[in-house]
Structures are given as C-alpha cells and as structure tokens.
Amino acid sequence: MKHDVSLRVNGTTTDDTVESRQLLVHYLRDTLGLTGTHVGCDSSNCGACTVLLDGVAVKSCTVLTAAADGAEVLTIEGLGSTEDLSPVQQGFRQCHGLQCGYCTPGMVVSATGLLLDQPSPDGQQIREGLEGNLCRCTGYQMIVESVQWAIENGGPGAAARAHADRAVQAGKR
Amino acid sequence: MIPAGFDYLRATSLEHAAQLLASHDDDTKLMAGGHSLIPLMKFRLAAPTAVIDISGLAELRTLELEGDMLRLGAGLRYRDLEFSDLVRDQLPLLAYASSTVGDRQVRARGTIGGAVVHGDPAADLPAVLVALDATVVLRGPAGDREVTAVDFFLDFWQTAAEPDEILLEVRVPAQPGRAWSYQKFHQRSQDWAVVGVAAQQRADGSHTLGLVNMGPVPVRARAVEQALADGAGIAAAAEHAAEGTSAPTDLRADGEYREHLARVLTAKALSEAGAG
Amino acid sequence: MGSMVGASVVRKEDPALLTGQGRFVDDIQLPGMLHMAYVRSVQAHASVLSIDVEDAVGMPGVLGVWTAADLEGLSPVRSAPGMDRPCLAGDTVRFVGEPVAVVVATDRYKAADAAGAVVVDYEPLPVLTTIEEAMAEGAAPIVPGQASNVVMAVPLTESDAETELAAAPHRTSLRIRNQRLAPVPIEPIGCVAHWEPSGLTLWATVQAPHPVRNELSVMFSLPNHQVRVIAPDVGGGFGAKASFYAEYLLTSELSRRLHRPVKYIETRSESLVSMTHGRAQVQDIEVGYDDDGKLLALRVAIVQDCGAWPDATGSGLPTLTLFMSGGCYKIPVIAASFRSVATNTTPVAAYRGAGRPEAAYLIERVVDVVADELGIDSLDVRRRNFIQREEMPYPTQFPGIVYDEGDYPALLEDLLGKIDYPALRAEAESRRTDPDKPLMGIGFSTFVEMGGFGPTPMFEQFGYIGGWESSTVRMNPDGSVVISVGTSPHGQGHETAFAQIASDALGGVPMDRITVLHGDTGTVQEGIGTMGSRGIPVCGPAVQKSADGVRQKLVKIAAHLLEADEADIESDGETFSVKGTPGSSIPLSEVAMTAYKPQRLPEGMDLGLQVMEYYEPTNLSYPSGAHACVVEIDRATGAVDVKRYVAVDDCGTVINPLNARGQVEGGLAQGIAQALLEEVVYAADGQPVTSSLIDYQIPSAPDLPAMETHHFVVKSSFNPLGAKGLGESGATGAPQAVTNAVIDALSHLGIRDLDMPLTPFKVWTAMRTPRAAEPAGSTELAPGQVPDGLPTSDDDSTDTPWKVTP
To answer: Cα separation of B197 and B200, whole Å?
Structure first.
C-alpha cells in the first residue's frame, strides 16, 4: 500500500509517496538524502537515528513514515551548520564529545531534546537523559561535559527552540 | 531490519478504528506508539497484514480525575504520564514508574495502552497497574466492558483483549499524598527490569504490591499484603514476596535469584512506601 | 608561535561530523545502485541439503540469487594455510550467521524480502559450541582438511618451567577465562562495489584500505592500480574492521556480473554474529614465588577459541598474549604455549588490544592472587617485581620483544599520589563488618602493552606487507599544505594530530592551512592502515620526516631568495627572515610559489614542494599505565558500582591531550564493560543468545562512571616522536583493575577469583556459595552452583584434555 505524505523537514515541506512499511529513518536518508541520521541497530537501542519529531526526540527507526504524515521533523542537518553550530554541536566540538562521529548526530539531537525538556540537568541527569544513545568510542564522560558546555552557552539552540515552539503552538508538544 | 509488507491504515476516529478492525482479518494489529510492535515487525516476529494507527485519536488521550478515579486514555504516552502534574499528584507511583521505562526516546512514543495490551510481564506498567487495582476498559462490537488488571493479563504476551476489541482507557484509583515505591533492578539503565517491585500505600494504611518479571504475567504479591495485614514487619512480610510466582530463567538471572531479588526489593519498597 | 604538539586543539574532523555532513559508507548513493542481502545459516552445524531460490528470484525488483554453486571459481577469503574460508557456505554450514546465499535487488526492502523467501533445507550435524567439546576425543574436525579442531598448537618456549616451578617455595595455579566479546562499533560493516571497465572501486568500512586492495587484487587477478579501495568516514572499528569480509568480494563480483554498483549494509543482528568477535581465551596459569612475593616462574598455556573459520589474525593472537604475559615484572622464566581451536561459533579476531588485554589481565590477576596467598598487599608484590627504570630498554625472554623506556614504579607512586590508599583500605576493611553499608574493594592494574605495530618482520606475521607507514607532505603554491597518510582513521582524530605534528615540523604553519587526506588507495601513496596503536608512533614519524623534508627545501629557497646563508634563516610559519637582519623577510607563500617557478629556483633544485617518506619502526613501543578502581558491592543483590576509576597512563609524547583523553576514556569504557557487563553467549546447540543490543550489553551513559585520567610521560627512544600509542591502553588496563577491586571486596568471603563479566547474578551467586573449605588456587565457581547454559558454567573439576595439570 502506498501513501501520499507531507512532512516539514528542517523547515522545508516535502511531499512524497511512500510504502506503508517504510521507516522514517529510511525516508530521511534514502528519499530526502539527509544522511546525517544514522542506523546503528535494529532493536531501538542505539539511538543513532534520533530526530526531533514535533519537538520531541524519537528514534526514527521505530516510526513509520506514513505515521509521521503531517509532522514536523528536525534532523542533525537542521540543527546548525558548520558556520553556525548549535550550542550542543559546539559543546561536542569544544569538549571532544565525539570520535568516530557515527553515534554523534543521534547523540546531539537527543541531548538537544533533553535540554528542551529540562534546561539545566546535572551530570547524572544528563547521563540518564542520554541513556537511549549508545556510543562505543568516548566512554561518555566527555559527552556529559559537552552537554554541560551547551547548558552554559545557549542550551538547545535557536533552531531547536523554534521547532519545539511550533510543535507547542500546533498542540503537538 | 525491515518489516514485511502490510497495509498501514490511519484511523480518524475510534469508530473508524472499530470499522477498520471489523473489516480486516485477524492478522490486523492496532498500533499506538508502535514501540513494541514495530521492533517485532522488524525482526519479522510479527507480520500483520494490516496495521491500524490509532495514535492520533483524541478520544484515546483522556487524562482526568473523575471522583477518586484517574482516567488515563490508552493513547497517553509514557512521557505524558511522566510529565503530567495530575498524574504526579494523584498517582506518583505511576508517574515515576513511567519515567523508568526504556529511554527518553522510547517514552516519547510508547503508550500506556500499548504496554497493557502487549502483555509483557517484564514491562514496568502492567505490574504497577496490578498493584494499583487498575481496571481496563475495552470496546468491542458488543459494547464496552471493564476488566481488572489482575484478570486482564492471561499469559506471556497474552491478554483478555479480543482481536476485535480496542483498549480505550485505564482507570486507576487515585492515591494522592500516599507513600509509594518502585524498585527496578536492571543490569543496564536501558534494560527491562530483571525484577521490579511496585508498592502503594492505601488510604487505610495498607499496602498493595505488584511484581515485574516474576512469571508469565505481572504478579500481585498477595502473600506479602496478607502478611502485612496480619501484622508482620517489613522483613517478615517481604519473605513472602516470591510466593505464587514462577520466575523465568534467562541470561540475567535464574528463578532463585529472581525470587531473592523479589524479596530484597519488596523489603526496600515497603520501607520506602512507609510500611511497618 | 607555540608548539602545536602537546596542545589541546579541537578537531578538524568535527564540523562535518557534527552537522550530518560526514560521509559514511551507507551514505553513498550511486546511479543504478543495487542492494545485496545475505541468507544466513540458522543452524550452528549442518549439511545443506538444498537451497530453494525459486520464490525469491521471482519477486519484484530482484535481480538474482546466488549460492556457492553459482559462484564457483570465486576466490575464498584467505586465512592461515589450508583454512581459506569460502564466501558462501557450500554443502556445510559451520556457525549461525554463516552466509549461504546472496540476493540482489533494487532496494534494501526488496532485498530483505527476497532473502527471507529463500528456503534452505538443513540436516543437523553435531554442534561443537565450546572448546571443550571441540577438543574432546573423537570430535569431528569443523574446518575441512584439518586433522582435528586444534588448528594451531604452538609451544612458544622449549622449557615447561617445571623445574623452576617445583623449586619455588610457593606454587599456585589459576584458570582464567577471558570471555568472548563483540566489538560493536556503532556503524556495522558495509560496502559499495562498483566494477567499471577501468577497474573496481570499493567503498568499505575498513581500517586498512591498502591491504583490502591487495587482497581484492589477488582474488580478481587485477593489477593493484585497477582496484581502488576507499574508506570514507568509518564509524568505529576497534580491530574488527581490520579483518577481510566476504562481502567485499561478493559485492565486487556481483557488480562485475550485473554491471551496476552493489551496496551491502549489515544489520546489527547480523553484525553480532558475522563481524569477528574478540578475546575468547582460556588460560591455564601456574606461578612459582617466594615468601616475599617475588615471582620466580610462570607457566601459561592458552586455548584460543577461533570460531568456525580461523581468522588469519585471530588464530595467532595468543602469541601477543604470551609475549606480554610477564607484564611489567621481572620473571626469571616464563613457559608459554597456545592452541587455537575451531568451534561452531562466529570467527574470532582482533578486538581493541588484540591479545594484550588478555595478558595484562592474567598477570595482574596472578599478582593479586599471589598477594592473597601470602597475605600481603598486592602493591608490595608489584613493587618487588617491577622492572626498574634503569633496566630499560628491557629485553624480555622472547626474542625481539624489548620494552622501551618506561618507569613502572614511578607510575604506581604517581597513581598513589592521586588517591588516599590507606584511607580507602581502612574504609574497605571497616565495610566488611558493617552490614548496613555496601562492601567496598580497591583494585589495581599496573600494566604494559604493545603499541606502534610493526616493525615489518612482526607485522608480516599478521598478513600485512609491512609494518611501516607513509606520509606525503605537499605545500601548495599559496603555502597551504596537503598531507596524505597511509593510516586510515575511524575516530582517532588523525587529521588533527598529524596536522599538529606537521605544523611544528613546517615551522609553525597554521592548523587551518593544513589538510590531511587518508583512506583512499587511489589518491594516497602506499600505506598499511590503522590498528595496533600505530597511528602516532609509526605514521607520526613519517609525517614529521616528510614535513621536515619540505621545510628543508623551503629554507633553501628562502636562503636563495634572501641571499643569505641557510643557517641564518628563521621562520615563524608565515614568513622567513634572516637572523639579525631586521626588515629582511619574505612571506612563506612567496617561498612556496617560488618552488613552482623553475627560473627562480637555486640552480639544480627540483621543482615542487612535495616529500614522501616511509617510516619503518625499529621496534614496537610499550605504553604502560597504573590504574586504580574503587567499587562498592550491594550485599543484597551483588550489583557492582564503580565509585572511582583513576588512570595514569604513559603513552610517551602526547600530541593532543584532548584526543588522548578521549582515547583513554573510550578504552577504559570498553575495559570496564568487559569486566562488568559484556559477553557473547551461545546456547548449547550453538544458537547465539546475544545477537541483539538488547542482550549484548554494551553500556550507555548511566552505566559507566566518570573517569579520572592522567598522563605520566616517559618518552620512547624507539621512534623520533617519543610516542608509544594509547588507543588500546584503556581496554588493556581496565578489566583487571575492576576485577581485582571486586575480588578485594569479596575476599573475606573466601572468594579468590571470578571470571568476567562480574554481573550482579554472578557476584550474588559467588557470595552465597560457601568457600571456606576450598583449597588455595581454586578459582572457579563450584560446579553445579550456577544454572546450566550460563557463562560461568565451565566445570573446573572435570579434567579437560587441554588443562595443564600440576
């Protein structure tokens, strides 16, 4: 079965026809070419596929594209740019919160989602807030410090805030 | 991992969902958050021919206090329960237990209704609802019916919900201002409980308890409750925690260890919930 | 201009990776690209009676299904002589997950459907899941053509050290099971093959593109220049992406046949049974020592579980374990031997540390056991046996294995300066009798490992053409710099670290004027790759040498332009000037441009500013460290909580402290997780029990402690940078620090040893098992105390054929 879907992804409306079973992560990656969102497992454990869906961090490998029809999505590409990193992205850079970079987009989006919910979590709360994201490189301490850096320097950032505000206005968050 | 093909059907109302359910075969599944169903489909452990999406239905998002009964729509997500002031005030045990499910992203999608109808004895909420004397409301072709949580869970991943029934809501007697505890023992933070114990103090000072992952269904720890009623102290009452259970053996624990954990966690839970 | 080496520079790699602009293999989309999926064995050992592909072939979008019979003539994956592994199983499957067929379709969904539609009919054969079963009398050989399942038996030493052991005042035996682990880089294996008339291009998740090119070249009888292997951004490797996988060959062959690019991306469930596992050793150890804890003799016999198809690297890894089995101690004699054994399980190869963590664990457990036997502090045993600073470089008894400079006693004292050991010890003692508080234990690990692999004679043994590394430094006409390196990073931060080295060597060229290229056999000169902590110690000197070559030429040109003597030329990275002659300066860009203007060059000077250098290390380097771990154990549940982890590491020269900290902490995380959480488990019938991340327990943030990491630098004289490498130190140092702490916390219960992972279940089981009557040296859980099918159920009381009996 096919479905016409319309989503707003990183501020741009996208209209496509998708199969019932298509996972949102594959729509983002294969159809839209937004390859920053990664796949690291098949059991919803690793969180590499995390995106903001209507203002909330979700695992896009466990969401059907068809079910996301009408939703607004913010991916790592929409969070900031190399010239204008979001505070969380900048925090990861300053505090060496990434190594291979594969879990990083999911980790950064997840941390952004955490800060949208909870503006100043302490170290333990940051760890718990990121429990749905697996990193095999860092050992997490430098990720915790990266998020702490972001808390001191602008929190989730303008793009994420605007995205979340729209979700609130739409009654979705 | 990719699900086998199926037809995705989005219900626009409860009535529409019921119609869709009636007009499709038994291999049709209702989906709310999809966080139990989609993983199973990706592993091809489930391959429904059609999936009816009920996640958007406002009718399933009831969240209100009616008398001393909290009505929780089946479509409420863990996240809704975790962050709701009403739930935090009226059923802090449920709000807290919801905050321990999976991880933040999972809690953003998974629903209380999904947790209930999936019938996983290792899940947190079923045992909590059993401890809280919750009732589930099902809507089928013959009308609505209520089933107590204790009666609802029949076996591993099996519940009293018929294939043509839709879970509408969960009704839970409110427990404002009373002591409670949820003790979840797990190996990693994102894991299911090896064993969990939910304890709720009642208006009359008595306690009710539910056990996670101590058998094919969530277990009401009646023997502990009885011992307390008979005047036993915490330690003595907790000794009864494993009675009537049939704890599974897996990589994390054997039955004996689980029984031991049930006793240990029950003692902690009772202590935290103001028993003795 | 300050030195860049030693500066905490943020990474050049990060802006792209942080904004979703990294380019990983699965991000590659080519016109007409097809998707390959495997049909994998669901049996651990079985005859393949038939493969019915009819339904699959007829499905929409399917281009074909291929079995071994359809691919006759395709080269196998090379391994040790006589053990080459076919790309697809033929008439026999040997482990769950072994590919039996491949499907190619127009998208990954259709490929998955078609793979699911292939029906394989199996007839089960006896399954040999454990090394005990595989080595039992009469066990049929798993690998065709082998006489038994012992595929390799190497006595590394002539002596069995029996004389010395017998003469020692004390003698203790210990069996250690270093459990099987899954490397789990968050990016699984993937590749895209594109066979064109001009040759084959393969994008792949590899740590070493040049060796993969060499293999493909041989396999397809193509000259090297017609095979291009590209490692784009690679999402972690940890050793497992250094192995050669059949999918590289199959996608290439299918691209050749179908005239279209073919992509393969492994799922996590596939990865957990297909990507090589690590560790999986059983070690029988005997140690002789005197009343003071002075070690007099050590005997180590290792059985390495190789899995169903012994890997070229994996089957020989116990050699490294044995080389390092003496740790940082002077032990007069070590008797060393190993056997590598095939079982009906996933093949085993390198995983972070690859053979050395198994050594560090064993000797550091031995030291603690000796201390326990004698009733003395384990730190005293360590101090009494340390190799001293003045004895270094220290030749071990193994030819060629010579430790470079290090100061093990000082490392330990430095560590002790960061913790209050007497207070911790007193607290731990008081906890033993205080039932209201958790038990507490303190564990130490003073270890040395190997880094900087080669040199060539060593690395040739693992199938590489050399142990050297290469670098080309080119200065462009505008004075900016492009460096090509032969290593192929996957998280290590080479682009930043090598730019730092080059910046200094070039006299201070700014970091943002330097680009580092890597991971492409089409554009990078010959290289070897990234493994064995060799990036900085082996490739670093190559970068330094080649940058220095460019600088020498710059100085010559500058001297010519300034009409001064070379010796008088000074540079600040942006200008050249003549010493003591104010106003006589010329911008670097002008000097660089001159290199491309033949008429302006000094007579006889070659055009251009490009220098390529190879660096062949004289020997391995030997990073070391002293770590302390403090744990609490819940008396009621057995749960272990790491309260503190302090690491002091000597990796020699530190290029970038920020990167270095990341490398150490990441390694520690894997080491702590090995100690407490991780293990690949098979059921008795060979079915993997841990084939998803639900069951295979890699930690998330709340599961690990904050770590305290420090450096203690003793430069190596073995390479010009003085660096030793540190990618594997954390994973090598941590497991025994944690285990020693747990055993310390439990020692008053008579518990002497437990095998990792120290899960709550295992610790609780041990705590309630009566121990007082057990003889010294008995180290395993008593038989029958743990339910069947669990990781610790090895029955120690049964004499197995490979057990060394005293």
So the answer is: 10
Q: What is the pLDDT of residue B45?
A: 94
CA C257 from centroid of its chain's CA atoms: 35
pLDDT, averaged across chain C = 94
Alpha-carbon Rg for chain B, nearest whole angstrom, is: 18
Instruction: Report d(CA C58, CA B71) in Å as an integer.
Output: 52
Beta strands in C672-728 (DSSP E): 707-711
What pLDDT is attached to residue C793? Answer: 33
Cα–Cα distance for residue pair B175/B134, rounded to 1 Å: 12
DSSP state of C88: S
Measure the CA–CA gap between A155 and A126, rounded to whole angstroms. Answer: 13
In whole angstroms, what is the distance from residue C594 CA to residue B168 CA? Answer: 81
Compare C778 and C717 and report the one with higher pLDDT: C717
Strands C481-485, C514-517: pairing is parallel
Cβ contacts of residue B250 below 8 Å, gap of 6+? none
Strand pairing report for C640-650 and C624-633: antiparallel
Specify the DSSP class assigned to residue C274: H
Picking from C59, C35, C54, C53, the residue whose alpha carbon sits closest to that of residue C101 is C53
Q: Nearest-CA neighbor of C739 among C722, C703, C723, C763?
A: C763
Residue C779: pLDDT over 60: no
Burial of A156 (0-12, 13-18, 19+ CB in 10 A): buried
Q: Could you tell me how far CA A88 lies from the centroid of its own chain? A: 11
Q: Report the complex ipTM.
A: 0.98
Task: Indicate the pairing of strand C295-307 with strand C334-342.
Answer: parallel
Closest to B8 (Cβ–Cβ): which among A3, A130, A133? A3
> Which whole number is the average pLDDT over C749-765?
97
User: pLDDT band at residue A22, thresholds of 50, 70 and 90?
Assistant: very high
Q: How much is the pLDDT for C37?
A: 98
Q: Which residues between 11 and 70 in chain A have a beta carbon less than 8 angstroms from any beta carbon of chain B?
A: 19-21, 23, 42-45, 47, 50, 53, 56-59, 61-64, 66-67, 69
Question: What are C90-111's pLDDT values in tens digits?
Answer: 999 999 999 999 999 999 999 9
Angstrom distance (rounded) from CA C422 to CA C412:
15
> For position B25, what pLDDT does the model report?
85
Nearest chain B residue to A117 by CA: give it: B83
Q: What is the DSSP string of B108-164?
A: HH-BHHHHHHHT-TTSHHHHHHHHTT-EEEEEETTEEEEEEHHHHEEETTEES--TT
* CA-based nearest residue to C291, from C406, C373, C383, C385: C373
Q: Does C661 sit within 8 Å of A96, measured CB to CB?
A: yes
For C607, other C-beta atoms within 10 Å of its C-beta total 10
Tokens of C358: 């198994």
Please report the sign of the dihedral spanned by the C-alpha atoms of residue C309, residue C313, residue C318, residue C319.
Answer: positive
What confidence tier does A173 reach under pLDDT thresholds 50, 70, 90? confident
Helices (H), C397-446: 408-416, 421-432
Q: What is the pLDDT of residue C772?
A: 53
The more confidently predicted of residues C231 and A172 is: C231
Considering only CB atoms, which chain B residues are within 8 Å of C761?
252-254, 257
Of C116, C690, C761, the CB nearest to B253: C761
C103 alpha-carbon distance from chain centroid = 32
Q: Return the C-alpha torsion angle B141, B143, B149, B150, nearest 10.
A: -80
Residue A29, exposed/middle/buried by CB under 10 A (0-12, 13-18, 19+)? buried
